[in-house]
Design brief:
By secondary structure, the protein is an alpha+beta fold. It is built from six helices and three strands. The chain is extended and about 55 Å long.
């Protein structure tokens, strides 16, 4: 069990190093995100159109977007976030007795978690007053 690669675009999109403006929405900070396949990116950059084989399309209304524009939670520096991800990976390896990624893939088991179990696995019956850097409440 386990993957050979991961997709972390939305995590990285919220970091200081990623392009995009930081905005405040309903009391929380977000980073404006525009995927390469979004209509906004393809209408402004020929390279984005080329990537999605639409470089010959000249009219915006004829582009077929393969991405979105939106906002993602602002997350601070890339190095801080990578540190948190590595810490979580290390913890998971410790829980499974795995000395390396290969062992983790061999030792991991997928288990079904019910909605009730999921609720029990998260903070409940308490009002969180300070979020941990590696755990965010849904907004």
């Amino acid at each position: 069990a386990g993957a050979d690669t991961v997709m972390m675009g939305s995590l990285f999109a919220g970091t200081d190093e990623a392009p995009g403006e930081i905005i405040l929405y309903q009391g929380r900070s977000y980073k404006v995100y525009r995927g390469m396949g979004s209509l906004g990116a393809m209408s402004k950059a020929k390279g984005a159109r080329e990537r999605y084989f639409q470089d010959d399309v000249d009219e915006v209304n004829k582009l077929v977007p393969e991405g979105i524009e939106g906002r993602v939670p602002y997350r601070g520096s890339l190095s801080f976030n990578v540190h948190q991800v590595l810490g979580g990976l290390r913890a998971g390896m410790g829980y499974t007795g795995s000395k390396d990624i290969g062992a983790l893939q061999g030792n991991a088991r997928f288990i079904r978690v019910s909605n009730s179990g999921l609720a029990e696995n998260h903070p409940h019956d308490v009002i969180v007053t300070k979020e941990a850097p590696n755990y965010r409440l849904k907004s």
